[in-house]
Model the fold of this input.
Amino acid sequence: MTDVIGPGIGTFIGQSFGEAANQCDHLAAQKALQRGLMDANCELLMSTAVKDAAKALLNAVMSEQIAATNGKLKARHYSAPANVKARNNAFVETAVGQLGRLSDNALGFSVMSKNVVKASRKELGALLRSPATCLNGYVVKKS
Amino acid sequence: MIDDGSVIGPEMGVLIGSLWNEPARRAKARAGELGEMRAQVRSARSAELLERAQALAAADVLETILCELGERQPVRLCDPAARPARNLEYAKLTSSHLCKLSNGKLSLSATDIERLAAQNTLK
Done:
C-alpha cells in the first residue's frame, strides 16, 4: 500500500493555521470593541451627569421664580439674569457630584474642563454647544 | 476512494465533515459575538446622544426663562403656572437637538415627545 498524504490533510493543516490567525484577529477586534464600549459607557455617564446638572439648575431657577411669585423670595441668586458665574459654578458642582454618584466614584471631570466652564461668562446653552467648553473631559479614577 | 481501493466509511466522512465545518462554525460564533458588542456600542452611543440632546434642551429652556426674567422677551415659560408648556418645550427641543446631533439619523416620535413632556421633570 502506498502512503499518500491526500489533499484533505493539507487542507486541514492549512485550516488549523488559518484558525489560529483568525483567533488572533478575533481577540484584537474583541479588545478594540471592549475599549470602544467602555469609552461609550463613560461618555454616556458623563452626558447623563451633564443633563442632570442642567435640569437641576433650571429647576433651581424656577424654584426662585415660584418663590418670588409667592412673595417669599428675599433675593434672587440663580435666577438673577446677570449672575452667570453662580449658575456656571452650580452647574459644574452638580455635574461633578452626579458623575461621582453615577459611576460609584470611578469617573470624574478633568480639572481643565471644570475650570473652563467655571471661568466662562457665557450662558449654559452657549457652553454646551461648543465642544471646547461643554464639560466633556473625564478622568478614570479607578477601574 | 483511496489508492488501495479501500473506502472511507461513513464514520470518517462524518469526522471530515465536522472538521471541515468547524472553522465556519467558529467564524459564525465569533461574528455573532462581535456583532452583539457592536450593537451594545451603538446603543450606548445613541443613549449618549439622547442625554446630550436633553442637556441642550434644558439649557435652551433656561436661556429663554432668563431672557423673559430680564424682560428681553414676553413672559411665556417663566410663569410658574406654565409647567406643562415648559415640559413640552423641553421635549420638542430634545427631539430637535437629537436630530441635529445624530445628523438626522435619530429623532423622537410625536408619542415620545408627549411621553417625555408628560414626565414633568421640569418644575
